[in-house]
Amino acid sequence: MTHREQGERAERAERVVVLALDGVYPFELGIPSRILGAADGRYEVLTCSVDGRPVRSNADFTIGVEHGPEILATADTVVIAPVDPSHVSTDLPDEVVAALALIRPDARIVSICTGAFVLAAAGLLDGHMATTHWQLADRFRRMYPHIALDPDVLFVDDGRILTSAGAASGVDVCLHLVRRDHGSELANTVARRCVVPPFRDGGQAQYIEQPVPEQGAAGTAATRAWALERLGDPLTLADLAGHARMSLRTFARRFNEEVGLSPGRWLIQQRLSRARHLLEASDLSVDQIAGQVGFATGASLRQHLHASIGVSPQAYRRTFQTAAR
User: What is the pTM of this model?
Assistant: First the structure.
């Protein structure tokens, strides 16, 4: 893409085309329009089928679409909506193959849940890391043993190709797109408008064993809210357990059951999330940001940020402050 084309693309709304196939899940089909459509006009979301005709959903109704496959050739980002597992096969119908062939080489491609099976069957995941719904991980590995699959995460951002897990992880990956394209301030605004969590790290566990608590059983939500107001303090497991009025062992076990992470890893994620926002929205130095979010030194923040997303604070700030302009 030339500099002129990049400039023109930056000045207009990003065109996102969602491909609906037979057996599509209606909820997930609507996620890109709902999330990206709340981003202050930054995205134009269109939906198509492989022939421009209505699509049978996996529910008891058919979905009409306004566009045929030709719209895929105009997309900056293509989203493959998931289909019922009964429609998954290594052999794609000819019309699906033809539709996918219309996607531009420079277009970004995103799958939700079983959409990863479609990308794999088309050869688009070769050489990429991927994820899909945890219940279908063994099936995916049997069908595509050559593709590196991580079934334990909410989504995988592998550059041009992004794959996400089941259902609500489609919300997470769409918010990630907004954050990647335009910064966390707009992503947080979109999350508030859609009444969804503003940030769930892609590496968070897909499946959290959370049994229904006994009546009157204490949880950790109040302690998490308390900790978020004190991220700059040197919080310890003992501090958290003391606030929750639990023993260390009970608190750690219950926290992991409810969140899917250890208290220590959760704290690091929250501190990194706050640090990323400050890198985008303020001119504070790395050392100042580290102090505000609870890292002992700027070096510690650099280490954790690089381990999480593979870039330095300075590189992150340059990227996202530019995207926010």
Answer: 0.74
Query: Tokens 């269109």 appear where?
Result: 46
**Low-confidence spans in the chain with pLDDT less than 50:** 1-8, 208, 210-216
**Spatial contact of 96 and 113, defined as CB atoms under 8 Å apart:** no
What SS3 state is found at 63? strand
| 320 CB-contact burial (10 Å; exposed 0-12 / middle 13-18 / buried 19+) | buried
For 192-230, write each residue's pLDDT tens digit.
Answer: 899 887 666 555 555 545 444 444 456 898 999 999 999
Provide the 3-class DSSP secondary structure of residue 15.
strand
Classify burial at 18, counting beta carbons within 10 Å of its beta carbon; exposed 0-12, middle 13-18, buried 19 or more.
buried
Query: Could you give the domains of the chain?
Result: 12-194 (3.40.50.880), 217-325 (1.10.10.60)
* Distance linking the first and last C-alpha atoms of the chain: 20
Euclidean distance between CA atoms 172 and 198, whole angstroms: 8
Other CB atoms within 10 A of residue 233 CB: 10
Tens digit of each residue's pLDDT (9 = 90 or more) over 100-147 = 999 999 999 999 999 999 999 999 999 999 999 999 999 999 999 999
Q: Give the integer Cα–Cα distance in Å for 259 and 92.
A: 38
Q: State how far the Cα of 130 lies from the Cα of 274, in Å rounded to an integer.
A: 27
Tokens of 200: 């769930």
The residue assigned the tokens 């300075």 is 314
Token output for 165: 């897990």
Number of H helices, E strands in the chain: 14, 10
